[in-house]
Amino acid sequence: MSYDIVRGMNDILPEEVTWWQLVEDTIRDVARRYNYREIRFPIVEHTELFTRGIGEGTEVVTKQMFTFPDQKGRSLSLRPEGTASVARAYLTHGMQTNAPFQKLIYFGPMFRYEKPQKGRQRQFHQYGIEAIGSLDPSLDVEVIAFAWTLMRDLGLTGLSLRLNSIGCAEDREPYHQALRAHFYEDISKMCANCQRRYEDNPLRILDCKEEVCQPFIETAPGPVEHLCQACAEHFEAVKGLLDQLGLEYAIDPHLVRGLDYYTRTVFELVSTDLGAQDSLLGGGRYDGLIESVGGPKTPGVGFAGGTERLILVLKEQTEAVEPERVDLFIATLGDDARGQAMRLTEELRRAGVSTEIDHRGRALRKQMTLANNVGARFLLVLGDDEVAAKKGSLKDMDSGDETPVELTPRELCDAVSQEHSGSCGPNCTCSH
Ligand code: HAM
To answer: What is the position in ligand 1's atom list of the atom closest to the CA of 121?
Structure first.
């Protein structure tokens, strides 16, 4: 019996991983330039971290978490996102006293029980950054600039950044009142979820995707109309700095984002190439999150993007990435040649040259096919004559040129290295 893969989860095969490596290398390089340091944290956390951090009334917490009891009956959940975990790690390691200002980046799988479709999985991967410890609008702008630089470095176009401010905790009640006043007359015509949200958290009505609710949502007041002076000034400063840096944005007065921890700045980068799931990345400020999970009042701002979605857009817009090639394939005829090939292969690999041989006792012709399949740059054929003479002929697979070589690791490494441009390791004896 064989097993099906769990719905909404994907295997990422080697050809696909080439795209992942390209994207992750680019993100790491942007992180280096912006000085964000990588943090890794567990996939499983206590459920309460997410209910408290993300918010009890959010879709992510009420419908989408993979939650289970451990052997002692404690409720654990697979992480649906990274920000709450970063806040927890910040407190677990006493950063609030040791090093309160942190700029962190993370990568990894996240889990949400959603209906799978293009760009939406139950296990997906995020790359995210979190800048913790300052209220300064320069940090909001740095985080947005990071996102734009990443997109530019990947060469992506057709993107737009939606921006809004939802104000601080104190602004929420007057805004909720304004929303209730707006929806009061029509709430009975809206969906059941919105009717519940009307009582609990009317701001969430703006997230509703139901057709029937859209006409009422379109005319709703935006949170910006209800900002206190400090939040209004903060938003003006963010916009002013974005203008100064020439970073594009469009104000979306109804953008509120689906997680409860947001305060002030919220944003999403969307792509026309993604269809219904158009959000490439999303983020914002969360000045109350660390306090809500048991720490001191500590501001923060960040974003996270879905790696699968980023790769979908990249594939739409760029040429296929070349898979990694093997430097040298050694084909053999006979047992002596095979023994010699094994010794050479091992020495070359230790020296940093990627080298491959046949492991399935194939005929010479089939070994040539294999050399092509692994994209070998060079081919060396060893038979009894070559082993006896300790000499062979190295074929450049791109040009077809053949060069005589001594069968020593040093000479082979030298010959192949023109191509592998000095990537040999510390044990290499070649002249590079
Ligand atoms: P989020 O908007 O829930 O925010 O998710 C961020 C990104 O993750 C989305 O824009 C999307 O690209 C990707 N994503 C979300 N759900 C799925 C899914 N089911 N399948 C594929 N991709 C998905 C957060 O998670 C916040 N923690 C972001 C943040 C960081 N805010 C401040 N700091």
So the answer is: 20
pTM: 0.93
Is the Cβ atom of 271 under 6 angstroms away from ligand 1?
no
Angstrom distance (rounded) from CA 396 to CA 403: 8
Closest of 319, 272, 281, 309 to residue 10, by C-alpha: 309
Q: Which of 257, 279, 293, 298 to mutate to test the pocket of ligand 1 (most atoms within 8 A of CB)?
A: 279
- For residue 80, CA distances in Å to 203, 209, 305 come to 21, 21, 13
Nearest protein CA to atom 13 of ligand 1, as residue: 306
Cβ contacts of 339 within 8 Å, gap of 6 or more: none
Residue 391's H or E segment, with its range, is strand 391-396
Among 265, 302, 252, CA closest to 166: 265
Decide whether any atom of ligand 1 lies within 6 Å of the 279 Cβ: yes
Is ligand 1 within 6 A of the CB of residue 305?
Answer: yes
CB contact set of 269 (below 8 Å; sequence gap of 6+): 147, 151, 159, 160, 161, 162, 279, 280, 281, 282, 305
Answer yes or no: is the C-beta of 123 below 6 A from any ligand 1 atom: no
pLDDT, one tens digit for every residue, the chain (432 residues)? 899 999 999 999 999 999 999 999 999 999 999 999 999 999 999 999 999 999 998 999 999 999 999 999 999 999 999 999 999 999 999 999 999 999 999 999 999 999 999 999 999 999 999 999 999 999 999 999 999 999 999 999 999 999 999 999 999 999 999 999 999 999 999 999 999 999 989 999 998 889 999 999 999 999 999 999 999 999 999 999 999 999 999 999 999 999 999 999 999 999 988 887 789 999 999 999 999 999 999 999 999 999 999 999 999 999 888 888 999 999 999 999 999 999 999 999 999 999 999 999 999 999 999 999 999 999 999 999 999 999 999 999 999 999 999 999 889 998 887 644 555 665 666 665
Q: Closest ligand 1 atom to the C-alpha of 84?
A: 27
